[in-house]
Design brief:
3-stranded parallel β-sheet; 22 helices; Rossmann fold; 24 strands; globular; 9-stranded mixed β-sheet; alpha/beta
Amino acid sequence: MPQDFLPTTAEEMRARGWERPDIVLVTGDAYLDHPAFGVSLIGRWLEAHGYRVAILAQPRHDDQQDFLRFGAPRLFFGITGGNLDSIVANYTGNAKVRDVDNYSPAGNPYFGEIRAKSQRRRPDRAVIRYAALARQAFPDAVIILGGLEASLRRFIHFDYQQNRLRGSVLTDAKADLLVYGMGERAVLEAAQRLARGETLSGIAGTCERLTESAFQARELASPSLHLPDWQEIGHEPARFLAAELTIDRQARAQAAQPLSQRQQALWVWQNRPAEPLTTGELDRLYELPFRREPHQGAPRVPAWEMIRHSLTIVRGCSGNCSFCAITRHQGVVTVDRSPESLVRELTELTRHAHFRGTVSDLGGPTANLYGTGCRLKNCLKRDCFAPELCKNLTIDEEKFIQLLRACQAVPGVKNLHVSSGLRMELLLQTPRLLAELLARHLPGAMKIAPEHTDPEVLRLMHKPGSRLLPEFLALCRKLAAAGTTKLRFTPYFIASHPGCTEAAMRNLAATARREGLEVRQFQDFTPTPGTISTAMYVTGLDRDSGRPIFVAKSHSQRQAQRQVLEGITLHQKGGPPRVPQKKRPLPKGGR
């Protein structure tokens, strides 16, 4: 008999014989009981440890009525914006309102069918709004923030929809605690402490908001590393970049020293990071009894349709790309699932009625980080890929190959794809794995993410140099020619990254033509919270030297860069090439 969904209504809760739940998890996504969705992962994790968990998915946010649904939780409200930051979910990279939400039923971002008169399902800055409604409903309830939005907005951050810096969501939401990173350990410890009547102070992987007196007392016991505060950043905007670099450096070192930052009247205090789950713990987490489908009240959710037949094989990212927030949320240590666990999960997947024989992805943040590690036990840098591969990075090519073969051998599996992004510099070191992927495991095309080809832009992105792409393409074409593989690439590029000019985009276009790449996927740089690229966007400064760089901020500047790639795409589809009009050059360091 299939496992029940976690209760989403008072009726479902009472059917379990509960008077009230221990924990109510609030999310801006539809309820998708699948391990690819954070609120389900945390919900099942807490359930496995004996807690009564209810899910409040996409509550109406014009009043507190939905927050009264289960009554006051015995322990806490756990609040997340969903799998995406709510501003990223609601707006494009150019701050235009999105008319599709892949995490909502039928992709409809509104509660009603007539959109002009309907409220959006996900409020802007969802964790702040949901926390306010939970507090209105139950003034004495404990409120804990978590998920991607809380992680990336835990300190002073840039909000591109408002085009300004904002304070920590912890202080704005007046919550009791913020869990940053992958929150299984911190959330479980918080639940255990509350159940015992203990305080939430000092939990690894959490941030606390402190009054001035409480901060001073904490400083006496355990001095923190101070980040630039509102006043310092206001007087010298370059301090915002300095703060982001400090947060990044401390995270990579897995530093135990607390971080602190004054907001307006309060302080945010970040405790040391939680230890990553071990392989055994990660296996048990992903093998919990998920339904692997949307709750019956949320049919046809596009995000579920895209990932329902996928498996997560690795967590964490040891890359250090300036524009990416994955490392800040998932951590710098990569942890592999065991092949045995993945085979068990895949075997269970084949029994689902909706499975037709194709596994859409064995992946993670980057699929071929599976089998990688570090020779050093206490590396303080964890910067494994730029400007070149670190000599202490270990790569177990055979482990990934054997995983692919074990999963392919599971009865009922006809096609096994690796659709997640793949790091080209790693594949150059693992030619047997590359040959295996090319021959058997690509979903029609190989997804690669050069992001750019201009050496200076790549440096600012903290990516390997421009020689990598041609070298990788040459090896792939050599391997394909030796077999019967029909080789196609889907490269992903970014326009308008800080430091990128129209000239750099024309260099990118020329490289794409020369290498015979079809440009299908590209986007304007989006200055999302919690990345060094966003700090460069805000300050107009080079991450390495602190010198001024050009930043395309205006609509016309960003459109001009995008049109360079749009011209290639149109030409490749058979239409006349679009040649962007020449723009009057901007002075160096202009914005």
